[in-house]
Amino acid sequence: MKIEILGCSGGMGKGEFTTCIRIDERLLIDAGSGLGEISQTEMLAIKQIFLTHAHLDHICFLPLLLDNLFELLESPIEVLALPETVEVLRKHIFNWQVWPDFSELPDKYQPALSYHPLSRVQPVETGDLTVFPIPARHVVPTCGYRVVSAEGKVFCFSGDTTYDEDVLQAYNQLGLINILMLECAFPDRLNTVAGHSKHLTPKRLLHFLQGLDQPPENLLITHMKPAFRAEIINELNNLDLPSTLHFLSSGDTFIL
Ligand SMILES: [Zn+2]
Ligand SMILES: [Zn+2]
What is the pTM of this model? Predict the structure, then answer.
């Protein structure tokens, strides 16, 4: 499994792109501004987009992607997400007011976009990968994803989440995670803001990892707010974390 980080920032700025992960050239998790970093040919190779939630930093380039490709596609791009997320897209984005409804364009019978509401318990088989939604705790309905290769290698992405007992218990049912991509949006001094917006800080992240029966082999840190990146990295480096740490930048690639 080839995992490419097209975007992993909690904000914007030169070289900073929001969440978009490409797996094996044809599958995306989230469609943040990192999606704008690939060529038209690469865009055409994308068949499925799994969304964690409907916040703008995770979906902002989906409308633009469909606008780029809609006359060129041979089959619709499948958008897979929790039913609540699909509903937000239908109602508030692809509603002809914010953006055209690409589930009817260019033709109702051959649209550019097809919606696939996900069951929270049912995995999706796609090629030689299996994708399982996993729980997250954020201010809107959100899931993370666990992607398992044919060889049994496991990549997990938390989505936006804060520390939560139920989420932790769910992770403890997952077995070994080879790579865990976990958010850490704020430094510890902004713990109150992190609590309100339901994100992690280094201490909340430590608490989460200490609660795992089996810490991941590799821990990728994502979604750091650009203004606090150095501060968050410093705080995380000073913690005694049980996994190999990697602070993500867009363009990073991992083979699993
Ligand atoms: Zn969010
Ligand atoms: Zn976010």
Answer: 0.97
Residues 117-172 pLDDT 10s = 999 889 999 999 999 999 999 999 999 999 999 999 999 999 999 999 999 999 99
The overall average pLDDT reported for the chain is 97
- In degrees, rounded to 5, the angle at the alpha carbon of residue 192 between the alpha carbons of residues 187 and 195 is 95
* pLDDT of 121: 87
- Ligand 2 geometric centre to CA of 185 (Å): 8
How far apart CA 229 and CA 43 sit, in angstroms, is: 29
State in Å: Cα 151 to ligand 2 middle.
31
Q: What is the CA radius of gyration of the chain?
A: 18
Question: What is the CA(160)–ligand 2 centre distance, in A?
Answer: 6
CA 57 – ligand 2 centroid, Å: 5
In the chain, where the domains are located:
2-255
The yes or no reply on domain 2-255 and CATH 3.40.1350.10 is no
